[in-house]
Specification:
The complex is a heterodimer of chains A (about 290) and B (about 290). With about 290 residues, chain A is α/β, with parallel strands linked by helices. Chain A has one domain: P-loop containing nucleotide triphosphate hydrolases (Rossmann fold, 3-Layer(aba) Sandwich), CATH 3.40.50.300. Chain A contains eleven helices and nine strands. Chain B has a single domain, classed as ABC transporter involved in vitamin B12 uptake, BtuC. The chains are: A alpha/beta (about 290), B mainly alpha (about 290).
């Protein structure tokens, strides 16, 4: 019930006219996302220090780092769910709080899967921001929800209660919600954690679908291999930016040790210096077990 | 057949019985609707604390008005709304976990309430009315208050239905959709506070939580969707209210306790039904968790 340090819901005097109508406009030519010297404190301890990077529209970037590196915090600040201690986030040139074009897809462990809602209900929730106060969903909203469910292949389970979904289906449901939200920037927190290989492939295919629709993608990942294979640029994070750029340049042994410290278990392979590691396996298992 | 008709019709000869039936049906339905949020958001402790924390407000009202019962509703309402907003402020200010803050406010206020009431001679009767309710003592004016405030709460639920659903299911989504999450959750707390005050006359401080939680939890076992949970819960709550009054009339047990016992009976039936049906259907395939 406590709201913590939420940024966007606070200015309630502005609330009646703000509902359903984004205040911010998109500046032409401004980057889809700019993170500018961002500092975040969490319970008095620094969670992020001096993080800066930017993304162009339609780009995809994977954030890689150990547990507690601040990946979720960074995503939540960009979403406008948490407020930074200092520094700025600009989406198309404006503060995130005016935008309703940002979708934040939570880690699956953050959701109560016993909640009595159907897959359809959850995807329709993506429309609530656009509907505005006191309005019911119309034909266009229902059509968008249907299209989104079809795009992720969940149309036939639309009437199921969410607790019946597999991990992969649950993640696809959230992607459908982002589609229904008509999001232009989609933030995914550990979308592949706890999924088996075929489900991971499904999700990666859907991310390509989002990319075709010119959606900008930012996600946190555990798996360095997947990041290296599927992302043109990666951000190696451990409270600070350890490296930013193409995986081949970022995933060097020195940088990886700097990011993962003693927890790095993989070894540089004989040939091309490929690092195989799975530093967060235990957390992943915990996540899978908790659900 | 005749006996059954007598069972239900005979008590209706008394106006206080009719008022009691209407009041407990209204309260049962209202509590179940708000209880849907209480159950799903894990706010049972908050609801209980709220009901108890109202006591000192009512006691002050009792002392100020010299034992008059008329204004107690307003004193209770004012205290409840203050408490609903105050608990959040305490936990933010003191940087405590919310359940600890609730525990402090709850115990302190309840003790203060009993202390205040005990200064009045012969307090036990009035105290027991507050603690356990006296639905058969509902006046026509009380009934109007229950109807007006209950109706107001239900209207707010209808108006903010989709917003309340989103903040309950996924607060982060609510924030990214730029809903006024702080304002909405405070409004929800105030609505629960009003519900508790309205239900005090029927079931009392000690059992108000039961009516918030039990019918909603019963509905949760029976249906799949949030909306249906509210409707089924409201039906069960109203039915428990009505049957509880009849039970109280024919057996002489306290009305609040009778209502809660009927509701608990419904819950146990639903639990039995659920466990037998899920045994035959089996666990659904496709779960990887």
């Amino acid at each position: 019930m406590t709201e913590g340090a939420r940024t966007c819901g606070r200015r309630f005097l502005a609330f009646p006219r703000r509902i359903g109508r984004p205040v911010a406009v998109h500046l032409p030519g401004a980057p889809a996302l700019e993170v500018d010297h961002l500092y975040v404190d969490y319970d008095g301890r620094p969670a992020l220090e001096d993080v800066s990077f930017s993304l162009q529209g339609g780009e995809r970037l994977a954030i890689v780092g150990p547990n507690g590196a601040g990946k979720s915090t960074l995503l939540k600040v960009i979403a406008g769910v948490l407020s930074p201690s200092s520094g700025e986030v600009r989406i198309r040139g404006f503060d995130p709080c005016g935008h309703i074009c940002i979708a934040y897809l939570p880690q699956r462990s953050e959701i109560d899967w016993r909640f009595p809602v159907t897959v359809y209900d959850v995807v329709m929730m993506g429309r609530v921001g656009r509907l505005g106060l006191l309005r019911r969903p119309r034909a266009r909203d229902r059509a968008l929800v249907r299209d989104a469910l079809e795009a992720v292949g969940l149309l036939e389970v639309a009437k199921r209660r969410i607790g019946e979904l597999s991990g992969g289906q649950a993640q696809r449901m959230f992607i459908a919600r982002a589609l229904a939200q008509e999001a232009e920037l989609v933030l995914l927190d550990e979308p592949l954690a706890g999924l088996d290989a075929p489900s991971q492939e499904d999700i990666l295919r859907l991310l390509s679908l989002l990319e075709e629709r010119k959606v900008t993608l930012l996600l946190s990942l555990h798996d360095l291999d997947i990041a290296a294979e599927h992302f043109p640029r990666v951000l190696l994070l451990n409270r600070r930016v350890i490296g930013l750029g193409p995986p081949a340049e970022v995933f060097t042994p020195a940088r990886l040790v700097a990011a993962f410290g003693g927890r790095l278990r993989g070894l540089p392979a004989a040939g091309g210096g490929v690092v195989v590691s799975d530093p967060c396996r235990t957390q992943e298992e915990k996540d899978a077990g908790a659900r | 057949m005749q006996a059954l008709a007598d069972f239900f019709v005979a008590p209706l000869a008394f106006p206080f019985m009719v008022r009691g039936l209407v009041a407990s049906a209204l309260v049962g339905a209202l509590c179940a609707v708000m209880g849907t949020y209480v159950v799903l958001r894990g706010m049972a402790f908050f609801g209980d604390a709220l009901a108890h924390a109202i006591l000192p407000g009512v006691a002050v009202g009792y002392l100020v008005t010299g034992g008059g019962r008329r204004s107690l509703f307003w004193w209770g309402l004012g205290t409840a709304i203050l408490m609903a907003l105050g608990i959040g402020a305490v936990s933010r200010k003191a940087n405590l976990k919310e359940d600890t803050a609730i525990g402090i406010v709850f115990a302190g206020m309840f003790a203060l309430g009993i202390a205040l009431i005990s200064t009045v001679r012969g307090y036990t009767v009035d105290l027991s009315h507050l603690l356990f309710g006296n639905v058969l003592g509902v006046s026509p004016r009380d009934l109007v208050l229950v109807g007006a405030f209950g109706g107001g709460v239900l209207l707010a639920v209808v108006l903010f239905y989709k917003e309340f659903l989103v903040i309950s299911f996924d607060p982060d989504l609510a924030a990214t959709l730029r809903l006024p999450t702080g304002l909405l959750s405070r409004l929800l707390l105030v609505l629960i506070a009003v519900t508790v005050v309205v239900s005090l006359q029927a079931v009392g401080v000690a059992l108000a939580l039961a009516m918030l939680v039990i019918p909603a939890a019963t509905a949760y076992l029976l249906v799949e969707r949030f909306f249906h949970m509210m409707w089924v819960g409201a039906g069960l709550g109203a039915l428990a209210g009505v049957l509880g009054i009849y039970l109280s009339y024919w057996t002489g047990i306290a009305s609040g306790a009778a209502i809660v016992l009927v509701a608990t009976g419904f819950f146990l039936l639903a639990l039995a039904f659920k466990s037998t049906s899920s045994r035959t259907v089996g666990v659904l395939p496709g779960r990887s968790r």
